[in-house]
Amino acid sequence: MKKESVDRKTDLNAPPLPKKDREDMGVGASETQFAQAKSDAFILRLYVAGQTPKSMMAFANLKKICEEHLKGQYFIEVVDLLENPTLARGDQILAIPTLVRKLPVPVRKIIGDLSNTERVLIGLDLLPRE
Amino acid sequence: MNMPEEKMRLPKAPTGIQGLDEITSGGLPKGRPTLVCGSAGCGKTLLAMEFLVRGARQYNEPGVFMAFEETENDLIQNVASLGFDLKDLIARKKMVIDFVYIERSEIEETGEYDLEGLFIRLGQAIDSIGAKRVVLDTIESLFSGLPNELILRAELRRLFRWLKEKGVTAIITGERSEGSLTRYGLEEYVSDCVIILDHRSSEQVSSRRLRVVKYRGSSHGTNEYPFLIDEDGISVLPVTSLGLQQIASTQRIPTGIERLDSMLGGAGFFRGSSVLVSGTAGTGKSSLAAHFVAAACQRGEQTLYFSFEESPSQIMRNMHSIGIDLQKWEKKGLLQFQANRPTFTGLEMHLTMMHKAINAFKPKVVIVDPLNSFVMGGNATEVKAMLMRLVDFLKMKEITGLFTNLTAGGGALEQTDIAISSLIDTWLLLRDIEISGERNRGMYILKSRGMAHSNQIREFLITDHGIELRDVYIGSGGVLTGSARLAQEAQEQVAQTIHDQDVERRKLDLERKRKIMEAQITALRFEFEAQEFEAMNIIGQEHAREDHQTQERVDMAQIRKADAKPNRQKGNSK
Fold first, then answer.
1. For chain B, what is the radius of gyration of the CA atoms?
2. Complex prediction ipTM
3. Using CB atoms and an 8 Å cut-off, which of residues 3-62 of chain A contact chain B?
4. How would you list the strands of the sheet with B205-215, edge to edge?
5. pTM, whole model, 2 decimals?
């Protein structure tokens, strides 16, 4: 664990991520609209807490995996818990970063920086569990 | 407990849990985490919950309960039976319950992560109500839910540090395991205060205990304290008082039996003393206790009667037969019975229940009838320890305690099977006296601290108006009792009659003697009078003769004309 990330996390009053960064992370139209448009859609929600290296890496890894395996049928929403702390409760978030597969059901959770592509694919049910 | 005042006192957060604050001299360390560990079902969650509920209700310190094992609804239902209305507290923003669900099979782990989500959740919950207290129950669930123990340990360390920075008083619960306090070694992180709860059973009776293993920067009671969970929540008993600082009263209270009072220096027991009435079966121990109860109620003092062998109605019926009306006092609310079988629960539980009853009823007099029914198997030392605590507790509250103890036949009378005699101030021994084919009841005072007391063995009867101490007759073979006493009484009667007759006879004799004497006096007087008369006669004659001679001489002189003048005018010159 890097020291700077520790400092950032203990300081809950740190300013939230700037709007621009959130848009860069791929947050656009609402997920319901997207789900209605595509029946086989993957609705993914990535929970982060501020713009930490781990979060950035998780998002980058996720984007890459989705582009490779789910092109055109995925939707990523990034939730920054520093901005919306109440949302942590709803999806039972403990670890950061956590990727939640909201759709298709059942809900799946993948924690960590998503650096192990194979495990991410298993987590998303895109690869069979051994 | 009397602890010396610490100059730099560690700030404490009172738990409001009966007894726990006394053991910890004020509560848990304020603004620091406390570890509460114990095996399954020992009451960890409840203790933690009560800490929050009492904090919110009594000390205006809102609390966050982070549950890892039970859902919010389960928790609300579970503690509702203890009278904790969590829904109300949540509605009034005094409490937040956050159920953390973690299921390993649903989680895939890829790469590095931290538990910032947990921090944010907890922080959000704390900030939403301005919480001062936090419970994490049981955070160890994370170990089974999250695969990477290394990350978890680092994050836990950070969590406890973060809790301290937040300044919240926290309880972290942990499952007890063999060899260490908690299964995952939580004590490594929470080192300010550690409390162990225990639930064990012996002789088929279970008891709960609590022990403060560690309390950094504060003195604390180190013993195992029994605690109980009932409709009022948890109550812990800090029963082993550390000192003997009870104030001894000089006030005396009558025993209810006048002649027994006289035996006890004329005034009865000391208030706040402990009295033991021991004796073999059927010697009237309970009757003696009933007298004391009735006397106390008569004075308007609340009396609590713990019965471990008879039901209240049985006691009242039996005592009614000897003319003691206890029912009247029970109706008036001066007398309260607490009847339980000794096997109903463990010793500590009994003691705890007695404490609770005493604290609630606030009696001046407490009866425990009988003590030794607690002795089962080889638990005599425990019973003694329990009684010591009870006696201490009663003394502290200046309650007079009267305990009865059944002495087994054949054993030494001056011995209780629980060896508590040293704790007792006044010890009345009731015993059978078997002489000449009879069994009678005798009573004596084996000891009575701080007062001059009778050393006599007194026979007493249980009559339809209660216990009656008889006069003492000492025969050649010791104290006379029963028919021997009656015979002695008859003998004395005869002796008295003979004595009376004797006196009468002597009186008559005297009278007779007096009369004889008087007769003698009369006779002597008569004799004297006779002699006197005679003497007077002689004297008279003598006078007459003298006169006559004188006249003769004058006459003679006249005749002889011897003198011109006669000596007397008498007589004529011729």
1. 47
2. 0.73
3. 5-6, 9-10, 12, 47, 49, 54, 57-58, 61
4. B95-99, B63-67, B133-137, B169-175, B33-38, B193-202, B205-215, B224-230, B233-236
5. 0.62
